[in-house]
Prior knowledge:
Belongs to the COMM domain-containing protein 3 family. InterPro entries: COMM, COMMD3. 53% of the residues lie in helices and 20% in strands. With 193 residues, it is of the alpha+beta class. It folds into two domains: 110 residues, no CATH class; 69 residues, no CATH class. A three-stranded antiparallel β-sheet has the order 1-2-3, covered by helices on one side. Strand 1 and strand 2 form a beta hairpin. The longest helix is centred in the middle third of the chain and has 24 residues. The protein is elongated.
Amino acid sequence: MELSADFVQGLQLLGNNAVVDDVSFDLLLQLSLDSILSPDSLEGSPPSAKLNNAQLKLGVASFITFLLEATKLDRDGTSLRHFLEELHFSEERLDKIIHVFEENKTNIRHVLASISSTYPHITDVRWRVEYYIKNNQLHKIGQPQYQIQLQTQKSGDGDVFQFSCSQEQLQDMVGKLKEACKSLERAHQVKPS
């Protein structure tokens, strides 16, 4: 597992018994886990360790990053133990981290799965043609307007997008969609060597 130098430094700081006592370590670990699983429920003051605010933030951010990366990469307790042993964590702290990770891995995975940057899927298209004779300024138009309604779905939630366009705009949109489909087909046919 690769973490940035800052996060490795933060983990080393948390592994140092002289800087972070056991009670503060437990509280920081729990605070990190709580911020992943239920960020809205965080209240109260941080533990009183021998850390300034910058070190405290770095420590919590390091724990959060460590737990998220380990879950994302589907690491097991043994590989995490090896990684943390290189950072000179005590055996007791190693056991606590591994226990917390293994106990909450499924919940963290659900949180990661709920974070999505995908676009909505188009599930239905409806359209109709309206022939406008005049517009609001009483100018003669005499051309059709297409009313398009797209129904989309993203993570179980549905939305409806409506717009109107001229025949030229609709032809342009259809052409771009066909071009995008061909581009996807070409990308799918290219096999990595």
